[in-house]
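PT: before anyone asks, these are the final sequences, not the draft ones from last week. 340 residues across everything. Please model them as a single complex and drop the result in this thread when it's through.
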Amino acid sequence: MSNNKLVTMDEFTIQETRKFPQATGELSTLLRDIGLAGKIINKQVRRAGLADILGKHGATNVQGEEQMKLDVYANDTMINIFMNSTECAGIASEENDDHVCYEDTYSANSKYVVLFDPLDGSSNIDVNAPIGTIFAIYRRVSEIGKPCTKEDFLQPGNKLMAAGYVIYGSSTMMVYATKIGVNGFTLEPSIGEFCLSHPNIKCPENGKIYSLNQGNTSKYSDGMKGYLDYCMEINKEQGRPYSHRYIGSMVGDLHRTLVKGGIFIYPADKSSPKGKLRLQYECNPMAFIVEAAGGAAMCNTGRILDIAPTELHQRTPIFIGSKNMVSKAMEFVQEKEVVA
Ligand code: AHG
Ligand code: MN
Ligand code: MN
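LR: through. Structure below.
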């Protein structure tokens, strides 16, 4: 392969799949479907300031949050793409109360289910900051040939087959991870294809940036406050305090953390004793990606990917990013620590 040839995401995925003779290509088809959904959502995001799409939709989602019009558009786009896919038995979305089973013959015979946050960071739409679509793909545990079941969607992250995100930032990128690694593809607008731009992404073992909503400090546990003090002190690794960066869009903050290193934290606090971010739609896919890139993702009691989910919309505290920064943070935030 010459260095200056553009490699499209489809070409890359097919080449990777061929390395495994037993692979059937079904996962590749799903990733292509997600790429298509990303392009459709991207088109709408790019005209957000122009079209009458900007603003509130007037409804609240299952978690009582205000939905933006683009949230609804992105959710509908994802649901329809997977409904028309030949490889998806059903989906669960952050924006829906319950999972959706596709009951046509193709879908019932599919091996995979997909969970997604159709538009993450949507409070940033009005201010032109990065937002994204996060997805998680599991092999179903229910009987193939029958409709999927809730158990398919309540699997721990350590059972993920693939996960990724599309980030609508200064450029549009799709990043996806399988157990063998993480690769990033930038949308080349002239041909409308995602092309390999960030091969074999590795999360640096150390970073210089901590990322969290520091305005919540008064609600943090003593351990978290201690870790914040540590971040703001001169540390021996770099001879100065860490820098603080926080967009308030998990996709944006995590993409930076993945590529440049650092730590992203959404801890438990007095108003959210279970944390804010959703295990199945946000934390598990991001934990899978970051671990596949050599980083770490923990909650107070252990690995994010080892949490056994009991409900679709459950939340968890998260400490994720450069391996050494995450393990330092865990020294401050112990399992038995109480936040309430
Ligand atoms: P969503 O837009 O899907 O509801 O997610 C918003 C999330 C996440 O993207 C971000 O990291 C976090 O909310 C920010 O929360 P705070 O405003 O509480 O810091
Ligand atoms: Mn989100
Ligand atoms: Mn969302």
